[in-house]
Structure formats: C-alpha cells, structure tokens
C-alpha cells in the first residue's frame, strides 16, 4: 500500500455546544477512489468544509504528502492541489465551457485575455480525460445536459494539476447514460494517479467505482473498509447503525469501531 496523499487524524469540529465531528480519521490514497458515505447529518459536509478551509478545525492533524498543513482559508487547499466539485457545480450558464473552466483564473498576456491558449488547454484537458460527449469547448454551458455539465465541472477541477479531487454527489439527478459517463470519468481520474473522494448516497455507484469506503455515523468514522471486502448491505448497516457484523477492515483502520 502506498502512503496516503491526504491523511486526517482525530479531527474534531464543534459549532457552539454541538460536537459535529468526533476524532475523525480519513486517508486518501493516490490512484484510488475513496467513497465518503453517511446519512444526512453524519458530518460529511462539515468534514469537507474543514478540508476546504471554510470551517475552522478545532483539533486534530491533517497531513498532505506527509507534511502537516493547516487549512486556514480556501487558498491553502487550492495551493496544495486539492479541488472541490460541489453538488451545485457553480457553473455560469451564460458562459461557454472554456470560460467556465478558467473562471476566476483567466490566463492573461500583456493585459489581455489569452483566449486561444485557454481554449487549447480546455480541449487538452477534456481529451486527456477521454471526454467525447462535448462537441466544442465554445459551447454555452446552458446548452449542456446534466452529465455534460458535471463533466465540465470535474474537468475544471483537474485543469490545475490537482492531486486530490472531492466530488459531492456527482451523479445526483442524472439519467442512466449520463451516470455511466460520470462514473467512467471518476474512475479515469483515479487511474491517472489522483486521489478521489466520492461523496455519495448511491451505493451502486460506490460499489462500482470506489476502492475503499469511509462510513460516517453521527460524526464518527464507523469504519474505513476496502470495497472488495464488503457488501452493500454491510455498508448500509455502518451508515444506519454505526456497526456491522461482518466487515473486512482496510489495513489502515484495524481499530475501527465495528
């Protein structure tokens, strides 16, 4: 097993008297998809916002590529190569694909927008991800399907030489064909060496593309398990009860609460 690229140890977060995250441990490995699952209110969004630098971490340690880091604001995660694709995608319908991919990070030369260079990089990024469902990078986002919009949001995240990508419910509200496209893309990200964190309620998606699953229950990690060693039923038990009778633990979490 390679060393985790992102290692979270005993992370705690409270909002006033409400203790939301309790000694959370999570490891993200390069070249793997880690599914972060849990019921509503389990703490998934709070954990992601802590890594994104939106929520202040009360206690605990976070290491990136083996070095301790403090996520004091969102720029820290970006500078390390950690990107986030949230469920609302944050795309501008009135802009084309290239403009959306470079929104807020436009390339300028001599004070002018380098449209040609940005368009070239956008095409190269989509090609590198084997995306064939988009006909032109100058297509308005408003004209794209749900699957195509998700593809653009993911491509934007990996455009900046990212090393870890968090994907929040990437297949929510998508049809069967579009879900297939997005799941293939998620797998390709990991195959290219990125550490991918997939946040999802869809157990079929999780079992298909994830290498390991971290299940949150009431703000605690019930277990971090290898997908090949568990089943959908066992993961659902972890999500709903915080324990399961027969789960093969990932080596990194042999002391998990099962």
Automatic annotation (TrEMBL):
Entry keyword annotation includes ATP-binding: yes
SMART domains: AAA
SUPFAM superfamilies: P-loop containing nucleoside triphosphate hydrolases
Keyword annotations: ATP-binding, Nucleotide-binding
Coiled-coil stretches: none
Keyword ATP-binding: yes
UniProt-recorded Gene Ontology molecular function terms: ATP binding
Pfam families, per the entry: ABC_tran
ABC transporter domain sequence ranges: 6-243
Protein origin, superkingdom: Bacteria
Protein name, per record: ATP-binding cassette domain-containing protein
Organism: Nocardioides koreensis
Upper classification of the organism: Bacteria, Bacillati, Actinomycetota, Actinomycetes, Propionibacteriales
């Amino acid at each position: 097993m390679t060393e985790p690229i992102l290692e979270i140890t005993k992370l705690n977060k409270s909002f006033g008297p409400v203790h939301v995250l309790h000694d959370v441990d999570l490891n993200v490995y390069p070249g793997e998809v880690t599914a972060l699952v849990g019921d509503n209110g389990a703490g998934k969004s709070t954990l992601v916002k802590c890594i994104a630098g939106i929520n202040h971490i009360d206690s605990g340690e976070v290491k990136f590529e083996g070095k301790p880091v403090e996520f004091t604001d969102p720029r820290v995660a970006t500078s390390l190569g950690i990107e986030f694709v949230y469920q609302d995608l944050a795309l501008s319908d009135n802009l084309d694909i290239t403009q959306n991919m470079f929104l807020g990070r436009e390339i300028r030369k001599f004070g002018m927008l380098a449209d040609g260079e940005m368009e070239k990089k956008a095409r190269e990024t989509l090609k590198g991800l084997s995306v064939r469902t988009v006909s032109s990078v100058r297509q308005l986002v408003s004209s794209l399907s749900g699957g195509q919009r998700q593809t653009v949001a993911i491509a934007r995240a990996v455009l900046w030489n990212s090393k870890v990508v968090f994907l929040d419910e990437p297949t929510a509200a998508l049809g069967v064909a579009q879900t297939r496209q997005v799941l293939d893309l998620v797998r390709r990200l990991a195959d290219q060496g990125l550490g991918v964190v997939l946040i999802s309620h869809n157990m079929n998606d999780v079992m298909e593309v994830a290498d390991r699953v971290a299940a949150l229950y009431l703000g605690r990690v019930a277990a971090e398990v290898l997908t090949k060693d568990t089943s959908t039923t066992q993961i659902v038990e972890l999500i709903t009860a915080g324990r399961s009778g027969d789960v093969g633990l990932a080596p990194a979490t042999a002391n998990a609460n099962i």
